[in-house]
């Protein structure tokens, strides 16, 4: 399997849990991923996120666009994944 390094961006509580705002993670460029399979890969690398991602609301974005649950995506070296918790405001 050849793999590429995709940047994972963490925000809010997720950044606090992992202790960094970004990191690189290997993905297979020949596979089409769904939001679910992306999350499985991230949780394999960062098990501490499992309970948070299962029990909290957040958004998954790939290359600065939200990824609907039913969509598929393939990654390149320039790809980035952002895990976005709910944002408060006023």
Q: What overall form do the CA principal axes indicate?
A: globular
What count of domains describes the coordinates? Answer: 1
Radius of gyration over C-alpha positions, nearest whole angstrom: 13 Å
The number of distinct helices, counting runs of at least 4 residues, comes to 3
Taking strands numbered 1, 2, ... along the chain, how are they ordered across the largest sheet? 2-1-5-3-4
In total, the number of strands is 5
Gap from first CA to last CA: 47 Å
Would you identify the CATH architecture? Roll
The helix/strand order is EHEHHEEE
CATH topology: Ubiquitin-like (UB roll)
Strand content: 25-35%
Give the integer mean of the pLDDT values: 91
Q: Give the helix level as a range of percent.
A: 25-40%
CATH homologous superfamily label: Beta-grasp domain
Unreliable segments of 5+ consecutive residues: none
SSE-based structural type: alpha+beta
Keywords: Nucleotide-binding
InterPro entries: Beta-grasp_dom_sf, MOCS2A, Mopterin_synth/thiamin_S_b, ThiS/MoaD-like
GO molecular function: nucleotide binding
Protein name: Molybdopterin synthase sulfur carrier subunit
Short description:
The chain is 27% helix and 27% strand. It has three helices and five strands, in the order βαβααβββ.
Describe the structure.
The protein has 90 residues and is an alpha+beta fold. The chain has a single domain (4-84), classed as Ubiquitin-like (UB roll), CATH 3.10.20. It is 27% helix and 27% strand. It has three helices and five strands. The protein has helices at residues 12-18, 35-45, 50-55, and strands at 4-10, 22-27, 59-62, 65-66, 80-84. Strands 2-1-5-3-4 form a five-stranded mixed beta sheet. The longest helix is centred in the middle third of the chain and has 11 residues, at 35-45. It is globular, with a radius of gyration of 13 Å.
